[in-house]
Amino acid sequence: MKETNHDLIATHEIIRVLETSLYFSRNIIDHQPDILIITDQESRIYRINHHGVAFLGKPKTEILGRELDELCASTVRKRFKDILKGDPRVTASFSNEDQDDDIKIYWQITRLVDEHLKMPLYLIKGTDTTELHYAYKKMEAINSEKQRIEDEIKKAKIIQETLLPDATLPQGIKLESIFIPAAETSGDWFGYHYDEPYDIFNVYVGDVTGHGLSSALLTGVVYGAVYSTEQMFNDHKDLFSKYSQAERLALLASAANSMILKADARLSMTMFFLSIEVKTGKTCFLNAGHRLPFLYKSSTGELTRIRGGGDVLGFSDEPRFEGNEFIMEPGDVIVLYTDGLFENKDKDGNVLKEKFMRQHIAKHAHNLSGLRTSCMEIIEAQGKDAVVDDDVAMIFISYKA
């Protein structure tokens, strides 16, 4: 009986201290946004706010005086019991983040220090981190998907780089190039093929609408179409002889057009096809809606355009192509390019002036390597401190220089 009275007196004293304490008054506890529970070392509950009552799911009158062990789930109960038995002198904490519980709570247990307290008491604070938990999980999923996409783009970039030519050039032909993608992958593509038995050198440059992964994938489709058709001509010499230089270019363009339509990517592509008879300089070309290339004539020092029209690839299953030809003379230079050259803006919003580039090309055309280097410097200066919106490709070809 004496022990029971002693417990009642001690309990009454503890509650009185809590009620008058500056830090743990009823007002402060009840208006906290977190779960707040005050227990002794045996987890007996002396004070609880309405968030704690809601968490335990029982009326407050059935909670006060009972041990927390009786009211909590087994995983949480064990953690509370272990921590309280250790009489933590500093704040201890744990979470059920790794459990299957629908509600995620971050728990902190702090030993109360007050000269009026006759026995150790502990403030248990529970912060609902459910929203934060699922937001973090969602962010993890987003980051995982982002990483997957970035990995796919890197793979696509590696694949696309293998599409760029590294073939041996025929004697009498020099070629330099610039290739600057606006993103990790590019919608610009160029290639060339030397048919040694017939001494014919073909060059192609193309520009898919837009840039990025879908455009880059389409360049791969076109690459396959063009080179498989080239291989067909190599494997069937009678077929090669059957068609003229212009007709072979038309077949290459038709193959590329068919594959773009089959891809059904709602993308189109401009292309310029060029075929040079290395021995004679007879040059045939076909323009599928592409920017008009420049032709530098060494004999006069003039820079003109290679004019000719045709339909953009990917719009029609019966495109209109028109073959044209001219003669390249020793020292002549052809400059092919994509529209990013004259459409990208500098930091002040100005595009590169075509007149300036024409004058520059005419001045430096006699040195193909120097022309390529100086054009690269111009493009880099144009893009400095600016957002590059479009890919840029330039191909410089000189004949018997």
Structure, explained:
This protein has 401 residues and is an alpha+beta fold. The chain has two domains: 2-133, Beta-Lactamase (2-Layer Sandwich); 153-399, 4-Layer Sandwich (Phosphatase 2c, domain 1). It contains 13 helices and 15 strands. The chain has helices at 2-20, 26-30, 50-56, 60-63, 68-71, 74-85, 130-163, 213-235, 237-242, 245-263, 340-343, 354-364, 368-383; strands at 35-40, 45-48, 92-95, 105-111, 121-128, 173-180, 188-195, 200-208, 269-277, 282-288, 294-297, 302-305, 323-327, 333-337, 392-399. The strands form three sheets. It has a five-stranded antiparallel sheet, sandwiched between helices. Helix 7 runs parallel beside helix 8 and helix 8 crosses helix 10. The model has no long low-confidence stretch (mean pLDDT 82).
